[in-house]
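[SOLVED] Need 3D model of a two-part complex

Original post:
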Amino acid sequence: MPLLWLLLLILAIAGVGYLLGRNRALSSAGGEIRKLHSLPSYYGYNGALVTAVPAIIFMMIWLLIQPILIENRTVILIPDDAIAEDSTRDLVMSDVRRIAEGLDRLIAEGALSATEIGDLRTETTDIREMLGEVGVALGAEVQPAVLNAALSYRALRATSSMWMTICVIGVAVLGLAMAVTRTNATFRARNSVEAVILTLLMLASTLAILTTLGIVLSMLFEARNFFNQYPWQDFFFGLTWAPSFSGRGGGSELGIIPLLWGTLYVSLIALLVAVPIGLFAAIYLSEYAGPKMRAFAKPLIEILAGIPTIVYGLFALITVGPLLRDYFAEPFGLGNGSSSVMTAGVVMGIMLIPFVSSLSDDIINAVPQSLRDGSFGLGATHSETIRQVVIPAALPGIVGAVLLAASRAIGETMIVVLGAGAAAKLDLNPFEAMTTVTVKIVSQLTGDTDFSSPETLVAFALGLTLFAITLGLNILALYIVRKYREQYE
Amino acid sequence: MNDMRFTERNVDSTEIKIRAKNVDVFYGETHAIKGVDVDIPEKTVTAFIGPSGCGKSTFLRCLNRMNDTIDTCRVTGDIKLDDEDIYDKRVDPVQLRAKVGMVFQKPNPFPKSIYDNVAYGPRIHGLAGNKAELDQIVEKSLRRAALWGEVKDRLDAPGTGLSGGQQQRLCIARAVATEPEVLLMDEPCSALDPIATAQVEELIDELRARYSVVIVTHSMQQAARVSQKTAFFHLGELVEFGETGAIFTKPEDPRTESYITGRIG
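Solution:
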């Protein structure tokens, strides 16, 4: 039975569970809702949940374990001499799976019946050609042992899925029976539904944490592969970034310093643009602007946050870059390319303005009016009040906003590619082309890549380093916010 | 009402500090204050009493133009400080507020150290020529607010870390440090416990020697204890204004009598 139908069936049984639970509770209380511990619908939900949740969990576990078991039982059917010299057992197994899948398609298209498939012999039929007709391409002629394995693979899968259907429905019915027998007027259905909801919420938060952990682990493993092939001292302290493009490896210099320098330089310029403008905009909007101006200007600034970064990149490439070159770089003799750290930094700064302004605005608004009144009451002007009372009180939040913007700046890619170029360079001149860690991650992983050469694997080491830096920034932000909060509240 | 102990009733000065004539205040369409006339004497504690929402705080905030910070608020009439109209175009509200200090209902120390809280006003108005003078002003103000003994060893600690009563006295010290001529207090004790209240009340009586103090209060006992003159507000109108003793013992208006005996409010 296909999975979708099985799921629908479970839901249908759960629906029955809802009705049975609700009705049984009502009838046990003689139809009087006031005598029940919980509202009737809670008994219904309890019935449905106790029916569906264990069955679905059971099904998920079965689906996780089933392929592993079947694989193990099929793999022993392949004798060692069925594996060609340039092949491995894994590759043969993937052939087995493809043949099984192809046979399924043949049946689905009506080219073969189920009994005919059992009689297939490699000696009499050209299975490779037959499967090719339904879109399953095989690399070599099918060997008898492989065909046998495929047939037994199919059989095992069919049996297993039949048993799964039976067991899952059994679990659902069992749950239904349990829910219904437990239901009576004093059963605390409300609390049991509450517990299920709690579990659901907990599961959601755990999933988020586990995903982060998974990302870190996958990066760690690949990064370890990289450091097995490339000395870590050269990576962290190397001053040159020059991967060889021959594809044969060797001769590459993969030092992170030029990339880190580019990243930090671009981010610094971006923050120098975004922090003052964003902060001043926030102060104007929250302290001076009237409600009409605020209602008009705030969404307008936030539109900036909705523009895709590639569009900012285009803006950098065709407008800001040439402008800076023609009016600053060339007249002052600082450079003659339109790709520069300055271009990327300025455009990225514009992108970050709404991050800084929107968050700071909320935080400044949260400063209690009583503090402003106190300052006004002492004869301070509006800007004195803002500078000496409001901003210090809002500082932890503002620092948080700035560090959030910094994390964004460090992770930005598109604007850098189009604005600052892709040449890794260690230079102080902001009108030189440079590049960042993220850009290099992209360029090392795009195109024809071989996942065993250090030139490709270096991307994971770069990613991990970047992750460590942004994580450090976030921890620093939390620390600063906590420290000041203690002092101010 | 037997627990009221009246302070001495002698009004030391007959000089009028603030003269308000025919003052009306509107919040948008709402008519909050209706034709109020009050003369607030120098070196005297004047109490504004009345039920919630009667406009006493609104009127108090007119005296240093704090209502300017509320967009919908409109004040008409005549309020004169030392015979100068404070709503005149030539008057800078910022300068006015330095002369007419204010202490609020809830203690609102700035998120700064105790020292910086008190030094805030003097720094803004350039009252101290150097650090030593500023130190002196801070110490003098804290002494006047009866807080010096408690905080002299931790002037660098944040003002927000003090207890509620200490915070309120810090706010009074902060207001005093600016050398105001009038001190407005908007229910300064409503967030404080009885002991802190007693300390602040004692302080108010001492402040009377130098300043004209106007205090808004919900507690009639407090008005009786600290003030020499009392004004009773009801529904935006000034019902009765006179010597505190007279208001509490033989009120002229029946509404005043109802309020102080607890029938309205």
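Edit: The mean pLDDT of chain A is 86.
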